[in-house]
Every structure is written in C-alpha cells, then in structure tokens.
Amino acid sequence: LNNFTLRNGVLHAEDIALPSVAKRFGTPCYVYSRRAIEAAWRVFDDAFAGHDHLICYAVKANSNLAVLNLLARLGSGFDIVSGGELERVLAAGGDPAKVVFSGVAKTEAEMRRALEVGILCFNVESEPELERLAAVAQSLNRRARVSLRINPDVDPDTHPYIATGLSENKFGIDIHAVERVYRRAADLPGIDVTGVDFHIGSQLTRIEPITDALERVLALIDRLQGQGIEISHLDVGGGVAIRYRDETPPSIGTYARQLLARLESRPLRVLLEPGRAIVGNAGVLLTRVEYLKHTAQRHFAIVDAAMNDLLRPALYDAWMAIEAVVPREGDTPTRRYDVVGPVCESADFLARDRELALAAGDLLAVRSAGAYGFVMSSNYNSRPRPAELLADGEVIHLIRERECSDALWAGERLVMLGPER
Ligand code: LLP
C-alpha cells in the first residue's frame, strides 16, 4: 500500500520525484497518492463484500475536493459533521443519498439543507437534537431518517483528546437511557427510525473495545425489536488505527471478520465511517530545512512548515515519521534533531529527537500526513496555508493552490474611523 518509496536514493510519490514537486510548487506542501487512497478504500470495501454495507468516508480526515471526488467515483458514501462538509461533498460530485450526518451541534440551517438534498441518515446525538430535527422536517414536509448515536461507555484505549465513547465524553446518548429516546423518536412525526450508530474514538489499535461496543449495541437492537422498533442499519463508526511508528493496528481483514462474525445472521446493513485508515498513509508533508541551529542543549532543524500547517505533533504530542527526501551518505554527521517550524511557540515542533543527517536546504517528508493534516491547518502567524498536490502515476495535479497573502485578510475591512478617542 505504500506509494512513497525511495528510487535511486530519491523519495518518490508514485512515479514523481519529490524534489521536482518542491521545485515546481514550492514548500511546504502536502502530496497525496491517488493509488494509495483508492487501494485503501478498496481494502475496506472488499473486506465487507460478503455483507450489505456502505463505506461512508469521514470527510473531516481530508476534505480536499479532488480527494472526495476520487472516492465518490469509487462509489463511496460520506460521513459529514457540518454544513460545510456537506457542501464539499456535493461540490465534489458525491451522492447525497449516501451521506450520514454526525456531530453534536447540528443547527436548524444544517438540518434543513441536509433534508432538502436528501441525505441517507442523521446520526442524532441528543434528545433536544431529535426534537429539533423533527420540527425542521415537519416544517419542510419531509421525513428525516435517523440513527441514534449510542455512547456505549467503553474505554477505547487511545489519546484522551480523541476518545469519544466514554460516558464522560460529550458524544452520543448513554446506552442505558437510549431506549426511552428511541420510543420518543418512533412516536415523533417527521422522524423515521432506521439505524443505530456508535463511534468510540480514533487511532484505535485494539479491536476489543470496538467489538465490546458492538455487542452492547446488538443487545440493544434486540431489546428495541422487542418493543416493536425495527432497525435496518448499524453504523459502526470509524477509528481503525494506522501505523505511524510501531503500532500494530488490526488489519482491515481482521477487523471485518471480527465484526461480521457477530453480524452474520442479521439482516442489518453495515455502515462504516473510516477516515484515517483511508487517507492517513496516503500523504506526506514536504518541507525544506531553512537553518540548522546548534545550541548548548539541542540541535534544531528549522524547517519551513510549522504547527499551523501540521498540528498533530503540537496538539497530541503525536509521533510522525520524518525522513530526508534525498538521504545523505557518508560525510554529513548524524545528529539528534528537534525539527521545528517558524511559529513563535515552543510547541511548534514536527518532531523531537530524531536521528538525521542534514544540511540547510535539504528536503524532508513528514510521513502519514494524509489524514488530519491540511484540514487542521490555520493561518496563525499570518502564514498562508500550503499547497496540496495529488500524484497520479507520472502526473502531479495541483489540487489546492498555496494561499497568497491577500487570502490572509480576505473578508477583513479597513473602516472609516472617527477622530481618535
Ligand atoms: N466518525 C465520527 C463520528 C468521528 O468523529 C470520526 C473522527 C470518524 C468517524 C473518523 O475516525 P477515523 O477513522 O479517522 O479514526 N484530529 C485527530 C483525530 C480526530 C478524530 C475525530 N473523529 C488526530 O489528528 O488524530
């Protein structure tokens, strides 16, 4: 699946040498591999081929239109969490009838738009949200298909910022309280109860928390059936980890077998919401070393990418692999570098304590940057956001221009001020 490989001592994205990309489009920039994204999506789709299913790619992981478009062409559905993500899916040619809408704070306007375009399902996360959705649907004379998102109270064993299925988290409805909410949903005009949904967290390296949650939810489905509430689909969320360093995530085949073993006899359509596992290892952040700085304490490689471009190391202390695009041989000494950016924060690092042989001007690739990379970028320190590129065999497509400085203040105004006060 790895489409970023060294060829003749030069790192390539598919068949494109990364130095040529840096020369043509500048740095920092994100480079994705079409082949890697498509292959990862197909692995999921094939693993569930024996059972009625729909892969609803989690748009938040990488929402570039070209990425969404290539997934839409494969027949993918989409998991969205905002009106903005819905508009992206539509602009990219995605099918609204394959869209599920998650998120704890859906506004009336978002509900209206989603009902108008006819999405597949709302993953409702609270009782007040259910009441609001019923009112909006009625006002439009439509019916909203609904899953309730269950909070199964399992420990997903991941970073606390990306755990979502514990009872202390803001997500979903407590599994012990949800039957009453289902009965309410079944009574509400404007609501069609169709599914049950859970998503317990992200970068899950163990499968047991997911199967635990699944078993609890299947028992719930049985209890609902006993009360005359028929469930036709089960959304098992996303969350399967990728390897950044030495993690050993379950293979997608194992994941699918574990889920399907518990679902076999049931006529339930399975929805999946993978994000990271589709795009994570399909992208790199390409950056150039501006300076090397050696202090009494540390060696710094100061690069042109920063925490505003790639936030994961600063926010989660995430470890992401960094390698030289053209590894040096022989004479350059290896040092333990902190790879840091230009932003005025000590949290502005991409990596710490990495053995690298570097000189100013060298190119580095931060690996596994296809998910939660560009999408989490900002303009902090008035830094234009980087370009995004898609490698497709020997062709490289610019899929988002580097921002120019005007874009930094687009929407801002100089105003006519009266006399000083
Ligand atoms: N479904 C729902 C309802 C979600 O909240 C998420 C991710 C997914 C699916 C996709 O999860 P995945 O398959 O990508 O693990 N920024 C963090 C990750 C935040 C994940 C938020 N929810 C990071 O960089 O690690």
Automatic annotation (TrEMBL):
Domain Orn/DAP/Arg decarboxylase 2 N-terminal: from-to ranges: 35-279
PROSITE patterns the record matches: ODR_DC_2_1
BP terms from Gene Ontology: lysine biosynthetic process via diaminopimelate
Listed EC numbers: 4.1.1.20
Role played: Specifically catalyzes the decarboxylation of meso-diaminopimelate (meso-DAP) to L-lysine.
Catalytic site: 344
Gene3D superfamilies assigned to the protein according to its UniProt record, in alphabetical order: Alanine racemase, Lyase, Ornithine Decarboxylase, Chain A, domain 1
InterPro entries reported for this sequence: Ala_racemase/Decarboxylase_C, DAP_deCOOHase_LysA, De-COase2_C, De-COase2_N, De-COase2_pyr-phos_BS, Orn/DAP/Arg_de-COase, PLP-binding_barrel
One GO MF term: diaminopimelate decarboxylase activity
Modified residues (N6-(pyridoxal phosphate)lysine): 60
Catalysed conversion reaction: meso-2,6-diaminopimelate + H(+) = L-lysine + CO2
Top EC class, one word: lyase
Cofactor: pyridoxal 5'-phosphate
UniProt family annotation: Belongs to the Orn/Lys/Arg decarboxylase class-II family. LysA subfamily.
Name the record gives this protein: Diaminopimelate decarboxylase
Binding, substrate: 276, 312, 316, 345, 372
Keywords, ordered alphabetically: Amino-acid biosynthesis, Decarboxylase, Lyase, Lysine biosynthesis, Pyridoxal phosphate
